[in-house]
Amino acid sequence: MFVRSWLLVGMNELLMAMLLCPEKVGYLMDRILEYQLGIARRYIETGIDIAQFGDDAGATKSLMMKPSLWRHFVKPRLK
Fold first, then answer.
1. Second label for 47, Cα 20 to 30 Å away, from 25, 61, 66, 79?
2. Phi-psi region of 63 (alpha: psi -120 to 50; beta: other; left: phi over 0)
3. Cα–Cα distance measured from residue 79 to residue 66, given in angstroms and rounded to the nearest whole number
4. Residues 44-53: pLDDT tens digits?
5. What is the C-alpha to C-alpha distance for residues 1 and 5, in angstroms, rounded to an integer?
6. From the CB of residue 5, how many other CB atoms can be counted at a distance below 10 Å?
7. Which SS3 state, helix, strand or coil, does residue 63 take?
8. Are 32 and 79 in contact (CB under 8 A)?
9. Is the CB of residue 19 less than 8 Å from the CB of residue 68?
């Protein structure tokens, strides 16, 4: 969700929006999650055996955002 979000709006814009308008970022990530779940359901319906979904919020030595932002936006949606 994080990668698709910043690909859609830009990295700097997304990180700033996390601080300035978190409700909009949450809405965007929820819609992306719904889309990805829909794809996963179609995979199951068509009998695909293996699929991979991934996300990357890490830089070389740390997260690309404050851990509190990751816990707020990303972690709840991983469940």
1. 79
2. beta
3. 20
4. 999 998 988 8
5. 6
6. 23
7. strand
8. no
9. no
**Residue 46, token pair as written in the block:** 């068509």
**From CA 24, how far away is CA 14, in angstroms rounded?**
10
- Encode pLDDT of 43-79 as tens digits: 999 999 898 888 888 888 888 889 999 999 999 998 8
Contact 4, 25 (CB under 8 A): no
- Cβ-proximal residues to 22 (8 Å cutoff; 6+ apart), any chain: 72, 73
- DSSP structure class, residue 58: B
Q: Are residues 39 and 48 in contact, defined by beta-carbon separation less than 8 angstroms?
A: no
User: What is the distance between the alpha carbons of residues 10 and 41, in angstroms, rounded to a whole number?
Assistant: 28
